Automatic annotation (TrEMBL):
Protein name: Fatty acid desaturase domain-containing protein
GO molecular function: oxidoreductase activity, acting on paired donors, with oxidation of a pair of donors resulting in the reduction of molecular oxygen to two molecules of water
UniProt keyword annotations, A-Z: Fatty acid biosynthesis, Fatty acid metabolism, Lipid biosynthesis, Lipid metabolism, Membrane, Oxidoreductase, Transmembrane, Transmembrane helix
Keyword Oxidoreductase: yes
Cellular compartment(s): Membrane
Keyword S-adenosyl-L-methionine: no
Topology of the protein relative to the lipid bilayer: Multi-pass membrane protein
Parts of the chain that traverse the membrane: 41-60, 66-84
Cellular component GO terms held in the UniProt record: endoplasmic reticulum membrane
Species assigned in the record: Stephania cephalantha
Origin organism lineage: Eukaryota, Viridiplantae, Streptophyta, Embryophyta, Tracheophyta
GO-annotated biological processes: very long-chain fatty acid biosynthetic process
PANTHER family registered for this protein in UniProt: ACYL-COA DESATURASE, DESATURASE 1, ISOFORM A-RELATED
Length: 247
């Protein structure tokens, strides 16, 4: 007689704790089950080094360094959400710009195949895969300076992982995206992820007066001084189309 526990253990799927998301067990380990190339090694070395540097932070603690780290983290985070994400990946407003192809192409691929097996970083492959392991699985990708850097990295990673697992859904999107207020605070508005997937073109990720979005504040400032133009936001018609049907 086969028990329920045995059925779960033999199943190719498992449930991510404290969520309704069901992930698929990976056939191979991301780190040991693939061939490493020079890019993989450089990427892994960078991640290990910046995390390793964090271990020394308590021994060199001083408040000047803390506040400098906070300011630099804020600048880096704002740069990611405003420039890389909203401006370059989604063209939600216009600015003089360059062309960081890798970040934009991966993000566009995420939206095109969101929460499917072809999504570069979806929790359907597991929490840790969507959070960070996807960086080191080059087969999967082909187919389908210390504390500041670590904080920024994991803030961005949380949008890919936590915001597709935990939070609230305000809009009827065809994916697992959630609005997560904690991630939103940590990432300057990126955590309003269900809003973003509902209105990908929008320069603002907040759709309620109480939803804090520092990235949007900066965009509005740039619009006011004439630097940002053609700023896109959802209309009431857009919102009506994306509303969750009442039961």
């Amino acid at each position: 007689m086969v028990t329920v526990k045995e059925n779960l253990e033999s199943s190719p799927y498992y449930k991510i704790p404290f969520s309704h998301v069901v992930a698929k067990k990976r056939a191979k380990n991301v780190y040991w089950g693939c061939k490493w190339n020079v890019k993989d090694i450089c990427q892994a070395t960078t991640v290990l080094v910046v995390h390793g540097l964090c271990l020394f932070a308590p021994f060199y603690f001083n408040w000047k360094a803390v506040w400098l780290g906070v300011v630099l983290s804020w600048i880096t985070g704002i740069g990611i959400t405003v420039s890389f994400h909203r401006n370059l990946a989604h063209s939600s407003f216009k600015l003089p710009k360059g062309d960081p192809i890798d970040w934009v192409s991966i993000h566009k691929y995420h939206h095109k195949y969101v929460d499917t097996e072809r999504d570069p970083h979806s929790p359907v492959e597991g929490f840790w895969f969507s959070h960070v392991n996807w960086l080191f699985d080059m087969d999967y990708m082909n187919q389908k300076t210390g504390v500041r850097i670590v904080l920024t990295l994991h803030g961005t990673f949380l949008v890919n992982s936590a915001c597709h697992i935990w939070g609230r859904r305000d809009w009827n999107t065809r994916d697992l995206s959630k609005n997560n207020w904690l991630v939103a605070i940590l990432t300057f508005g990126e955590g309003w992820h269900n809003n973003h997937h509902a209105f990908e073109f929008s320069a603002t990720f907040s759709q309620r007066w109480w939803q804090v979005d520092f990235g949007w504040c900066l965009i509005k400032l740039m619009e006011t001084i004439g630097l940002a133009t053609e700023v896109k936001v959802p209309s009431e018609v857009h919102k009506q189309k994306m509303m969750i049907p009442s039961t």
